[in-house]
Please model this.
Amino acid sequence: MIFDDQIIKNFTSIRITNNQKMLEFPGGYMSNNGHMTSISFGRREMNKKLITMVCALFCAALMAGIASAGEDGPNGKNLAEDKNATCSSFEKDDPQFAPGKAVDGYKQTRWSSNFFTDKAPDDAWWQVDLGDKTAISFITINFEAAYGKEFNILVSDDGKSWKKVLEVKDGKPGENIFKLPVPAEGRYVKYQGVKRGSAYGHSFFEFGVYSN
Ligand SMILES: [Ca+2]
Model:
């Protein structure tokens, strides 16, 4: 077999030793002894190829995980955004911690329950009026460091008679996404605190309600 010009021009050099022709390229070489052609890689090049392959497999698995999470996460518009929100109390009666701050669409503003004067700060509640009876499949809560460790989510058609649709025992700071065990319907959605995760109040930046 003879190396042709198209093959040779892709390599960095040609070496001829005894009766053997070798084409060198970064990290390896191709040899031809007149009977067969073989390609060899150095150990370092093999390690680089192995690492590249493992990274590619990891990235593919990661992307598959992200895709599946998207399929099972909330989609579309936050139905609670800019709707009327009320609460049991807010910190120092300071407007910057008012209940509407949890549905204003801004991730920097938040509701915080009043932990200074409340006699039962663990039991603080917050609720939003969606305006109409609404199908609900997902709830998202973006907690501040003052998070709710345990809480319930309730729904109501009239704001008086409530039905528990979610019970959480392991809330955490940051974004929390909950798929309701059973899809619910209601006009009002309430966050009922049970146990705070810190010495401060129940506080979240944004509260999300999604139909799907
Ligand atoms: Ca906000």
